[in-house]
Amino acid sequence: MGHATDNVAEERHTFAMTSDVWDEESARRYDETSAEMFTPGRIDPAVDLLAGLAADTAALEFAIGTGRVAVPLHARGVPVTGIDLSGPMLDQLRRKPGAAGIPVVAGDMATTRVDGEFGLVYLVFNTIANLRTQAEQVACFRNAARHLTAGGRFVVELWVPPLRRFPPGQTAVPFDVGPDHLGFDTMDLVTQQGTSHHFWREADGSYRRGESNFRYVWPSECDLMAQLAGLELEDRWADWDRSPFTSGSESHVSVWRKP
């Protein structure tokens, strides 16, 4: 345990965290602007899979946010602990029914350590991309491994970079075009840095703009990060329903196991 703590302290001094942090207004609007992700069709398959992987062990969620997955997973009888960089997001979580039994720690998912060991650590909704350097993403895998018991699993839900949608010379690609929201990504193919640009239509007809920054990462790069952390790939699916992962898949749910 002491050795792991020394490693965390060392990593904190090798890079400065670059993640965007949700402020109070963004946290307050989060559940509304992400309403599609809160539907039973989105949540139930994720909770079913995670509950099965956790079995009779405890789970740790990196970037727990407002508890979209943690609250229903906890309601299924899985003891859940959470880490999040945004205090306002944790405030929103604490206000939710059923969240009182979920311990949370304010901190970054690359270096923050919580007490105990877990049979499951998970990170959903593309959030590992919020860590905007390769070093931070590698540290996140290592932090997950430090929290896992032998045989425990690290689960990541992540999109596959849609670079095939970029015609030569184009710098932006839309990912959502609807009556109330327009979203497109700009990406640098050399640095793997990107920005999601959002335009939301308000009730009075005006538009509100928002941006979030990320570093995209390939499934194969995730596997190498897992290997560096001492984890082994166990499964990879295209979604929470365990559809086969193919060259045409736009996302993946990957499971790495600690030997």
From TrEMBL:
Native organism: Jiangella alba
Any Pfam family matching the protein: Methyltransf_25
Stretches of the chain forming a coiled coil according to its record: none
Molecular function GO labels: methyltransferase activity
Tree of life domain: Bacteria
Keywords carried by this UniProt record: Methyltransferase, Transferase
Protein's recorded name: Methyltransferase domain-containing protein
Acetylation in keyword set: no
GO biological process, one term: methylation
